Amino acid sequence: MALFKKVWPIKLAIVWALLTANSLLVQAQDFTLANNCPPSFELVAIQGQEPVCRLVNLYQFYDSVQNRGVGGTQTSLPAHRDGFTPAQIDLGRFLFFDPLLSKDGSISCASCHQPDKGFSDDLDRSIGITGAKGGRSAPSLWNVAFIDKFFWDVRASSLEEQAQGPLFDPLEMGNSPAKLLTSLKQNVSYVNMFAQAFPNKKALDLEQVYSALAAFQTSLISLNSRYDRYAHGHHQALTENEVKGLNIFRSFVARCAECHQPPLFTNNQVAVIGTPEPQGREFDIGAEKTFAHVNNSQKLRGGFKVPTLRNITKTAPYMHSGKFEKLFDAVEFYSKGRGHAVPKSEQLQLHWHIWEPDLTNEEMQHVVDFLGALSDESLTPKIPAEVPSGLPVIDEKYQNVTRGLPR
Ligand code: HEC
Ligand code: HEC
């Protein structure tokens, strides 16, 4: 009897070990990566290589921006990133939603770039693992495949470089390269998934993490809004007021399309437009800091990246500082007079297209109406039901904190 008592816990331990090993195996099998491209991409075979996903869309049939006049509707898109394999895109999706990427497993990329909020959050400034607000508002990630400068102050020049910002910023995900790599390598599912997505690589490394995140983000394409249908010739796609708004947007009075150039609604440039900081916040010098090593960097003082206006109704509050709650307020900013919000102590070199269009309330409302027609979320990717770390994907705790509710 005494012997039985001694052996029994050992037996239990063995059964437990078998069970956990088994569940690890099940986990590893559960995360098979896609072998098809997301919608809007076609799988293209390249000799001697894995087939890759190439973007297909109607704008590819139009000529370049040249000869069409700025703001013309049937203009082509700038160069874009694609050519990732289905497995790489799908691995990036799991990584994007997995809180394992943060130091304490509390937040993922999707905490601040939420699919139902235009891949932004509803905060003026995002909140990282410390619970404190960071310096700026989270931009939308729609159509990042077409941009070549990242962050409001354009301090990163590729998606791969950009990802290292939030991952290792103590105020955002707070991780370290060594810890991130170790936690991925300790996860059987991830080891298998990386091997599947990068079959030519010997071992899992951080370059593959950045690359998979880039692959996933470049699949976030939004080019099929009612505006696009209008641009492709379906004139019924916009209401009368939206067409009025579009015409004001493109007019030489408002000049919005000079910077928010269709079809992306950004020209991928930096512009100094003089948006205000919220009360009590220090003046944000923006791109001046990024170009501090270059002559004349003071020209870019207060300069920010021209953001896309696609899915803009989803990404309030607006501007780098999240100062404007409503789209109308953001539009009204342009009509309140050149430099009206620039602090007296600042001498900014405002862009010459920032003027005083003196739009009426009705005209501004038409512009807002028009901006609403730039919504297309039809290619929103599937949020994984589970991620390899087993951590909760939809982090309600985090979202409660951001709403000022108890955890
Ligand atoms: C704590 C919130 C937070 C988390 C977590 C976060 N981001 Fe961001 N993201 C931001 C903010 C805020 C900015 C803008 C910062 C700036 O411009 O200085 C930003 C900017 C970006 C940009 C640049 C977009 C553009 O138009 O310039 C990309 C791309 C991006 N994030 C992707 C990611 C990825 C990938 C992850 C996960 C590895 C991630 N983010 C995690 C808040 C976050
Ligand atoms: C000279 C270039 C330029 C012109 C002209 C311009 N914008 Fe902008 N726009 C910008 C820049 C730069 C920002 C970001 C500024 C910041 O964050 O401080 C911006 C931000 C915005 C935003 C907020 C986007 C977001 O994601 O937060 C909206 C909305 C907007 N512009 C609409 C318009 C409208 C409407 C017009 C015409 C009345 C217009 N813009 C004209 C450069 C321009």
How would you characterize the overall build of this protein?
There is one protein chain. With 407 residues, this protein is mainly alpha-helical. The chain has 2 domains: 41-220, Cytochrome Bc1 Complex, Chain D, domain 2, CATH 1.10.760.10; 226-372, Cytochrome c-like domain (Cytochrome Bc1 Complex, Chain D, domain 2, Orthogonal Bundle). It is 34% helix and 3% strand. It contains 14 helices and 4 strands. It has helices at residues 2-30, 86-97, 109-112, 159-168, 177-185, 188-197, 206-217, 226-231, 240-250, 256-259, 287-290, 327-335, 361-372, 396-402, and strands spanning 41-44, 52-55, 270-272, 303-305. A hairpin with a 7-residue loop joins strand 1 and strand 2. It is globular. Mean pLDDT is 90; it is low at 17-29. It binds heme C (2 copies). One heme C (HEC) is lined by residues 101, 107, 109, 111-113, 126, 128, 134-136, 138-139, 141, 144, 147, 150-152, 159, 162-163, 166-167, 172-173, 213, 217, 305.
Task: Give the helix/strand layout.
Blueprint: H1 2-30, E1 41-44, E2 52-55, H2 86-97, H3 109-112, H4 159-168, H5 177-185, H6 188-197, H7 206-217, H8 226-231, H9 240-250, H10 256-259, E3 270-272, H11 287-290, E4 303-305, H12 327-335, H13 361-372, H14 396-402
Antiparallel strand pairs: 1-2, 3-4
Helix pairs in contact: 1-6, 2-6, 2-7, 4-7, 9-13, 12-13
Bound molecules: heme C (2 copies).
